[in-house]
## 1
Amino acid sequence: MRNIIEIRNLTMKFGELIANEDVSFDIEHEHIVSLIGPNGAGKTTLFNCVTGFYKPCSGQVTYYPEEDNKIDITGQPTHKICKLGITRTFQIVKTLSEMTVEQNVMAGAFLHTNRTSEARELARHILEQTGLTQKRDELGRNLTVAERKRVEIARALATNPQVLMLDECMAGLNQTEIKDVMNLILKLKDSGQTLLIVEHIMEAIMPISDKVVVLSSGKKIAEGSPQDIANNDDVIKAYLGEKYHAKSKKS
Ligand SMILES: Nc1ncnc2c1ncn2[C@@H]1O[C@H](COP(=O)(O)OP(=O)(O)O)[C@@H](O)[C@H]1O
Ligand SMILES: [Mg+2]
């Protein structure tokens, strides 16, 4: 299994505050890697550093679009990183409220084409894949939270990413909606998509992740299989609490 992204010794500071401190981990090709940790742990900052929204103070992010092609993307502009194949969604959804669902998704497709017909064709394919076809002509502002989050994922997919990064795309959803997103993520993985996901809902993360990376106060405190992480004492202390631990032990 080859790595598609390697994050090495990444540090990001805001003045005195160290949001990411010497963080290193790999994202394996066609795997689901999850990033968890308490609020303020530095998860979104790490997303921002990998996708070029922030320029890290030190460290490297290396991207392997193909096995024998290595690109140092550290601090590259976000549009360039997106064009190379790494796309993210935002924790605070940015659905365009005065545009239809289809137009929102077409906005992503325009990264690779100037032709409206082509963008529409791609958007329709992705709307189908993400279960949004029926909502195609609905305006962004009329959507539920779950639909908005799904449109965010669809728009990101329309940029044709090799690596899709989802920042809390299940927050605020009910059980059924969470299950739907889990199934969509697994379907994407099956079709060859690599994913890095930030999520708080452990019941959703643990069954679908190939690997879990835990951040706390900006530092990586653990990395391993979901089972390892659920039983890791440092992680339980910093984040999971005894409740989840006991529950996962029982099952
Ligand atoms: N643009 C910024 N300017 C200053 N501080 C920031 C900025 N973005 C994040 N931080 C701080 O960095 C820390 C990590 O934040 P964040 O990455 O959003 O955490 P998480 O996504 O894990 O909740 C927090 O203390 C937050 O207040
Ligand atoms: Mg965050």
## 2
Amino acid sequence: MSTIALQALGLETSHLVDYQDRLVHNQIVNDLDALNKAVKAAGFEFTIASAHRDFHRQASIWNAKFSGKRSILDKNSIPIDTDSLTDSEIVESIMLFSALPGASRHHFGSDLDIYAKNCLAPHESLQLEPWEYQSGGPFYEFSCWLESSLSEFGFFKPYDKYRGGVAAEPWHISHIKTANMMTKCVTPNTIRDAIAKQNILGKAAILAELPRLYTQYVTNIAKN
Ligand SMILES: [Zn+2]
């Protein structure tokens, strides 16, 4: 597999550099810095909640959810009782909020979860839930600013709304040019190769339905 394919699957990290104590793709730094400065000029404190995450980190989140050590939430943030679910149903439940290891856009280094720290009241802490970015929530104005300005800096929101796959993630931004380059390397075949060799719970159920899961959750995003 090519180096770039390994990077896109979260299995290689030589493309990453440090930015505000997070790891990001070296090709996004200039645009990210320009965005950061514009966000500040608009009165918001640009804060990164999460940037690059590698395959093994994603696998540990996945396995913790699959095994019940970490709760799987439904659309209304209520924990799901997985006792009566098949492996295939558990896989689908996890994928509403957590990507399949190898198929997370956080592997790319081009994608970040961001918020505006100065919009939180002293007693509030970040939840990364959609209401915070909607009308009445602490980041509503920040979110509106992003909506109208992100594209100027080469970014977009892949999970701007629910499309029957991944839940809405209004905090998740993606560097268009870099992410599109990485996306080309993430196919049912490369995901299969990555997963087949690793300890991933529910592997048989995942591999049996990979082409459909790929269409429903991986490529089912906003246009850019
Ligand atoms: Zn994200």
## 3
Amino acid sequence: MFLNLQNISKKFSNNSVLENINLEIQKGEFFSLLGPSGCGKTTLLRIISGLEHSDSGNIILEEKDVTKLTPQQRKVGIVFQNYALFPNMNVAKNVSYGLEIKKESKDVIDRKVKDVLKKVNLSHKENASVSELSGGEQQRASLARVIVNEPSLILFDEPLSNLDYALRLEAREELKRLQREAGITSVYVTHDQGEALALSDRIAVMNKGVIQQVGSPKDLYNNPVNSFVSGFVGHYNIFSSEESDEIMGITDIGKDEALIILPENLKIRKSEKPTNIQLKEILYNGSFTEFILKTQGKEIKSICFSNEKIAEFVIDDFALLEFNPGKIKVIKK
Ligand SMILES: Nc1ncnc2c1ncn2[C@@H]1O[C@H](COP(=O)(O)OP(=O)(O)OP(=O)(O)O)[C@@H](O)[C@H]1O
Ligand SMILES: [Mg+2]
């Protein structure tokens, strides 16, 4: 095992931010910490890097206990959300800075900087000032600055969140390619479930400082263990015992359980007669359409792909639900 977090806990004043975190990360793995704002992702990343210390627990990196080591002693690179580039230096200088501190020879520095700029497609911007770079280029420059030091572990803290949507998708693809080619073990923090699903080998879903589930993207999406993970990762519809009975017509759900179904597995049929389910919103998305329905004060979501036939709906239409009982899951509340 490459990185092992053992019983990590952290409080700020009396506020418990991380509770007994245990994780095992393999060499070369792209591992994400996914959770809502304030759940402790950055704090955990800072503890792994050495910028912050935990109150208890140990961090084992490549068989070595690094719990008490400084960031410099850990051979860990960090890419921050705001890139933290030096604004008064050009791209090449930003990238070479770490090597100069290590007193590498000029030849070695020049070669390494050229290589890494080529890798991130920034060779043509070598002499540009970082303030002249686009958001995506800045993101690539900050990655180059980290890769050039050949860290054994890279930590990413929401590195794509400053980019607009189209650029974010492009940068996501680029990042995945670079990580795969370089084979550097990566721990990636995000609150964006789509990003985590697309990039990661495995994901730890966190809520309020506690790990809820660890698994591959497919695992988490298809087999969430509780209602937090099902809501956060899959945007499942979640029904309590009573709601299952009243809305889905399923009576055997226990009080401490919930019934869940993915929006794409919940289909709607138009009803000419009034029913207790009414369409409230239609969100067209290109390859699919989301239908937001309301029943007894509860909102539910149905997704229809563009290649599926569905009746023309208008807002306030009455609907009936259709689903394959095999697609329903029962989880802990
Ligand atoms: N230095 C600090 N002093 C006091 N409280 C802190 C400190 N750093 C973080 N916290 C608190 O710890 C909790 C977790 O913060 P953290 O930054 O780890 O969350 P996060 O999951 O990264 O959130 P986001 O997605 O918004 O970046 C928050 O309630 C935050 O206010
Ligand atoms: Mg954060």
